[in-house]
Amino acid sequence: xDIVHIGGRVPEALARFVTADDVLVIGTGKTGFIxxxxxGTVSLQIAAEAPCSVVVIPTIDLRFRRGxxxxxxxxxxxTAIIGAAAGEASARQEPxxxxxxxFSGVIPATVETRATIAARVAAVESMVDAGLxxxxxxxxxxxxxxxxxxxxxxxxLVVGAGHPRGAGHALGAVTHDVLVNIDAPxxxxxxxxxxxxxxxxxxxx
Length: 205
Prior knowledge:
205 residues, alpha/beta, Rossmann-like_a/b/a_fold, UspA, Universal stress protein family protein
């Protein structure tokens, strides 16, 4: 293990130090309930600015947790998210629960049917070892709320970085809300490095 001292603003310094192929692991303290894009913690800023996938581990008791939860929707990160979740589940020999929310709230969203999601999930299930249990759950609840509830006792929650519209924000609103209210280790998957995440990276770090 090498210890490297970096200077400057922490999020920017770490973003310069890592590459898209890395998985950055950071810790965070629990924070209050905040919606949308109000950045209030260093860990949020790091996750937003890092060019690679990031594992955020909260200050909670990590014992007795089981299962991998992943948030999926019909976008170009879906395969990467399921692949990352499958890798972690295989390394831990634990079940996977895929969560899809059709909630659109007040923001116009692409219409995503259950059939479309089911078809895409089935197409990438070959990534999952035959012996692993995979469950897909559909909900109309707000996605961050559904993911936080589902992962309350999970070993890991896997989400995509999202596709925010506003300049200067590298996390989507759902991922932001998940990290603000984090209650399990969270792996934030980036498109550029998603296919290279090593199984067990969050577990072994």
